[in-house]
Write a structure and sequence with these properties.
The structure holds two protein chains of two kinds.
Chain A (H helix, E strand, L loop, with lengths): L2 H4 L1 H5 L2 H6 L1 E5 L5 E2 L14 E5 L3 E10 L12 E8 L4 E6 L12 E11 L6 E9 L5
Antiparallel strand pairs in A: 1-2, 1-3, 4-5, 4-7, 5-6, 7-8
Chain B lengths: L2 E7 L10 H15 L7 E5 L3 H5 L4 H8 L7 E4 L5 H15 L4 E9 L6 H8 L15 H16 L8 H10 L13 H6 L2 E3 L2 E2 L8 E9 L9 E10 L14 H11 L9 E5 L3 H10 L8 H6 L16 H4 L4 H16 L13 E8 L4 E9 L1
Parallel strand pairs in B: 2-3, 2-4, 9-10
Antiparallel strand pairs in B: 1-7, 1-8, 4-7, 5-6, 8-11, 10-11
The chains are: A mainly beta, B alpha/beta.
Chain lengths: 138, 378
């Protein structure tokens, strides 16, 4: 476990992105991003506004992790995926509520808030987005 | 002009009895002895993970102290697996500018003090984006796995098609005295090796290791045991986070570094290639980016034996990251030390016959920091 895992501010400052998928929109080229950067990774513009990103997307690529880093052993095997959100934003996230054999590229997924790691008995419990198979209600 | 005038390297592996300082000192003293013990103007330590694994930073002063070089200016240079190549690039530029006549570059990584796989994985996760990749449980291996899956989907090849890479690397390493894994592997071993991060298996990536290698670099070709000139170098970065990349099967930083190196020379035909690849898929992508194979066709180079040490296009004659080993911050210094030994005809048992010129490509992370050095024996 790293000291910065137990750090409250290091997690707290990412809360808008991790709890709500608050990212960035480049006013110049329209590129959307998570997290919001100071400079657009696509066109280099510095004119970026806060943007609420959509909570649905599709699995673009994934890996099933069998050798976990310290702090993530409990979840092994778990799935790390590149998820393309409905507006085209690409993010990296864990998938949840699904077994490795059920995942496929193109699968529709939706964001849920889940526990990512626990930093010891007195440390903080870090929550963040994970994506699960889309449960249709619309 | 910039010359390598001496080198020293330790066997890559488990050095339980040696600390970070012992490893750095041993390789440095071997390189200085090889170069005839010249006075030094600068020390550059190449390392990536000492802060995380060994609780030690300020490595310039740390290594200088243990070499009895207090007073000599010294810094640490870090660029993941390409740290050593970046260190040599900066050493060259100190020499070209006239700031220094001779620079000692020592690459060192002491990874085995973390004795659990979980801790080793966590330390390697510091090479990817901490807040938006590693936080989510992504590992360095899983990043390579994503590239591997994209490569498999795009070029319609199977897992077994990646076996030719480690098979070739292990075969090359059987003759390399300082290699970590001096044994052959076959496709059956590849296909039965445990999955670390699907579709990537243990046989696609290096093991954990300790290592140190050092070079003495000079403005003159004054080496007593031979000289190799650093003809030109190029360096480029790419986005560290994969979610920001357009493609995971193309690594534009490699081509940019290559073009920058070539832009300063006329014609350069390497007799062999040294590629710091970390994974099978990155090895394939690297030879494609260097123009040695078409997109999606790198496997043929390794399957058909062309990339073997005695083949027409030798790649990693010592066994590469896979089999020589990949002590992260030291790896690129190994590449350059090995290339120096090759170009001075001193790679006994693992020599590329008649090698006069070499292209050395070092890759940090998943193509996020690439350095190309062009070298020739003089």
């Amino acid at each position: 476990m790293w000291a910065y895992w137990v750090s409250v501010p290091s997690h707290w400052r990412e809360v808008p992105a991790r709890y709500r998928l608050e990212g960035g929109l480049c006013r110049k080229c329209g590129h959307t991003m998570l997290p919001k950067e100071e400079v657009c990774p696509s066109c280099g513009s510095r004119d970026i506004e806060v943007k609420q990103l959509p909570r649905r997307g599709k699995v673009a690529n994934y890996s099933v992790i069998w050798n976990a880093p310290r702090g993530y052993e409990y979840y092994t095997p778990y799935i790390v995926a590149l998820v393309r959100l409905e507006d085209g934003t690409m993010i990296l996230s864990q998938l949840t509520d699904i077994s490795p054999s059920e995942v496929s590229e193109g699968m529709e997924v939706e964001m849920v808030l889940r526990k990512v790691r626990v930093s010891g008995e007195s440390g903080i419990i870090a929550y963040s987005y994970k994506f699960r198979p889309l449960m249709r209600s619309d | 002009m910039v010359f390598v005038i001496g080198a020293g390297l330790l066997k890559v592996g488990d050095h339980w009895e040696k600390s970070l300082r012992n490893l750095a000192a041993e390789a440095s003293l071997a390189a200085l002895k090889d170069a005839g013990d010249p006075p030094l103007d600068y020390l550059i330590v190449s390392n990536s993970l000492s802060g995380v694994i060994n609780g030690q930073e300020n490595l310039g002063s740390y290594v200088a102290t243990h070499l009895g070089l207090a007073g000599v200016p010294a810094v640490k240079v870090e660029a993941a697996n390409a740290s050593g190549a970046a260190a040599v690039l900066l050493a060259s530029s100190l020499i070209r500018s006239g700031e220094a006549q001779r620079v000692l570059v020592v690459g060192v990584e002491k990874m085995t003090d973390y004795t659990s796989l979980e801790d080793s994985n966590a330390s390697l996760s510091t090479l990817i984006d901490s807040e938006y990749e590693a936080f989510h449980g992504a590992t360095l291996d899983s990043m390579h796995a994503l590239a591997m899956r994209e490569y498999m989907m795009k070029y319609r090849i199977n897992r077994e098609d990646f076996s030719y890479f480690p098979i070739t690397m292990h075969e090359n390493a059987t003759d390399t005295p300082h290699a970590q894994y001096r044994f052959k592997v076959d496709m059956e071993a590849y296909m039965s090796s445990p999955l670390i991060a699907e579709p990537l298996s243990m046989m696609d990536v290096p093991g954990i290791s300790d290592g140190a290698a050092a070079l003495v670099i000079s403005s003159k070709g004054e080496g007593q045991n031979g000289n190799a000139r650093i003809v030109s170098s190029g360096h480029a970065t790419d986005r560290i986070s994969l979610y920001n990349r357009g493609s995971l099967v193309e690594m534009p930083s490699i081509g940019m570094a290559l073009r920058r190196a070539l832009s300063r020379v006329g014609d350069f035909k390497p007799d062999f290639y040294s590629i710091g690849e970390y994974s099978s898929v990155l090895g394939y992508i690297a030879v494609e980016e260097l123009g040695l194979a078409g997109r999606g066709e790198a496997q043929k180079l390794f399957r058909d034996g062309e990339a073997k040490r005695d083949g027409p296009i030798p790649v990693n004659p010592e066994g590469g990251s896979k089999a020589r080993g990949d002590p992260i911050g030291a790896t690129a210094v190994y590449q350059l030390a090995e290339t120096y030994l090759q170009l001075t005809g001193r790679a006994q048992g693992w020599q590329v016959g008649g090698a006069k010129r070499a292209l050395v490509l070092s890759i940090g992370g998943l193509g996020s920091n690439s350095v190309v050095h062009l070298m020739e024996g003089v």
